[in-house]
């Protein structure tokens, strides 16, 4: 079964920025790229850094701690020092609200 959880208003995530939101048991970073929303695990797989505080460019986020980069659509790790991909979550928008798939 698919469970969609309301996480925030669409207007709460500014363009080219992210918010860290609690989804069930996980911290999820929700990004707004020109109105297209993406959600990935907030914690960098390399260390104790919050990717919602990273630098966003070209559909990628750069970790604020050691500058590993990840593709926001696929979660793929793009450069060292991180080696593992990010978990991604499905996102949809409805009535001005962002919903993240928790299952
Ligand atoms: Fe993210 Fe090291 S903690 S690259």
From TrEMBL:
Keyword hit for Oxidoreductase: yes
Lineage: Bacteria, Pseudomonadati, Pseudomonadota, Betaproteobacteria, Burkholderiales
Top EC class for this record: oxidoreductase
Occurrences of domain Rieske (ranges): 5-100
CDD domains: Rieske_RO_ferredoxin
NCBIfam families: nirD_assim_sml, PRK09965.1
Name used for this protein in its record: Bifunctional 3-phenylpropionate/cinnamic acid dioxygenase ferredoxin subunit
Pfam families: Rieske
Record InterPro entries: Rieske-like_NirD (IPR012748), Rieske_2Fe-2S (IPR017941), Rieske_2Fe-2S_sf (IPR036922)
Origin species: Undibacterium arcticum
GO molecular function, one term: 3-phenylpropionate dioxygenase activity
Enzyme Commission numbers on file: 1.14.12.19
Keyword set includes Iron-sulfur: yes
Key words of the record: 2Fe-2S, Dioxygenase, Iron, Iron-sulfur, Metal-binding, Nitrate assimilation, Oxidoreductase
